[in-house]
Known about the structure:
The chain is mainly alpha-helical. Among the domains are: 1-167, no CATH class; 431-493, no CATH class. The chain has helices at 16-34, 39-50, 57-66, 69-81, 90-101, 109-122, 131-137, 139-153, 160-167, 170-176, 183-193, 197-210, 217-225, 232-243, 250-260, 264-277, 284-294, 298-311, 318-325, 336-345, 352-362, 366-380, 384-394, 400-413, 418-427, 433-446, 453-463, 479-488. α4 runs parallel beside α6.
Amino acid sequence: MTRGTTQVEYYAFVHRTFWEYFYACSLVWQFEQEQTISLDEIIEEVFGQHWQDEKWHQVLQFIARTIEPQFVGEIISYLIDTDGEEENFQNLFLAGKCFFEVRNSQDIDDVGTELLNDLKDLAAYHQHENFFALKRNWDLQLRFKAMRQIATIWKDDPETLAFLKKRKALQEIAIGWKDDSETLSFFKQLIEHDDNIHVRFEAVRQIATVWKDAPETLPFLKQLIESNNWLVPVEAVRQIAIGWKDDPETLPLLKHWAVSKDHSVVQHEAVRQIGTHWKDDPETLPFLKQVLESHANPFVRNEVVEQIATHWTHDSQTLPILKQHIGSEDFWAISKGAVRKIATIWKDDPETLSMLKQLLLSDPSPDVRGEALKQIVRGSRNNPETLQFLKQLLESEGDWELRYETLQQIVRSWRNHPETLQLLKQLLKSDNPDVRVKALEQIATGWKHDLEMFELFYNCALNDPYQDENDLFIFSDNPRRVALEAIADAKLR
């Protein structure tokens, strides 16, 4: 809207989209009509300054949609030649968006071919890395994004489908070629024969989602439950529970699988889906209790306890059930979330603290032990017995990672306690150099402004018995190096 009443020549926009549209129109007008800016200026000062920022892509795409194809070709060539790896290849993805906007893309086929080849290379980016490393490093997302652009922009290219099949880009194939007579058969073949479990899972997921309304889909998923293909039945159970939740036959079917299937992972998944999606059904909790009492498989019973602890915390029987099964030989994996709920909801129950201590001492999961430790400290910090319990744990011969986490909790929660610093000093006498390192790190963190610590660090730097057989003193974590770094801290000088 304009400020016409005061004769002030400026505009205000109620939404960013208006600004994007008018700004792009202004640039195109200056370039095509007034000829007051050149193509080089558009490339260097508009695209060159803003290709990294996705919030600008709508403006840049509008420009590409409006000006002549040969000019867009030069812009795309500039983007292709730009090194965008540190910006997650936004240059290539913007180039793809701009190419998609070109009115007659055949006029710049050579540029399009170069862009397509670069995107295909990106679709194989770091493909030697394992699946979980890719997820952490965003490489997998980059590859999927590249394949998504290829599937969208070059859908009519006869080579695109073959390329996507080779790359196992299942979501893109399912969306773009759903009506192709061979697509569904291709997915079913992957479920049966592909070596990668993630590919098989994704094929099941796409069939259940994209072909959900096809009459043969649900029978096919039920058939997969009988498959010996590793873990495929689990994904089939999950998809049936999610996609056909409102089907009156689904819950009875899941209950049947929970108690009668020979495959324990199918039973386990059926229990999980029942607890998750039918937690408001009044018959679900009694059914789970029945499974808990009668099922022979500890893996399945453990999941029942997990579901009850997660979804029925306010039921009067839940805490007794947890007390009964925590510590039993077949109870081995209660989740962090369940531990947190136990500590929060039953914090005033006199037996909760002992339950948390039992989890801390005996649960095989480091995540669960760590959560139990946090909840003990949070709920019982003012209990004088808590510090003594943690000190005993610290002096035990158990898992050092847990002992170090215990040490951190002591320093964090009882820093001003007269015994804490003395405890750390005692740990400096340990025969284990890793223990001495951790103790020094905690002293340097909690008492870094205490000038009396200088002598302690000085003695450690000179006299600690640490020896490095590989002569890598300056590279390894060791007590003397930690002490020297603490001395070098300006606040300790």
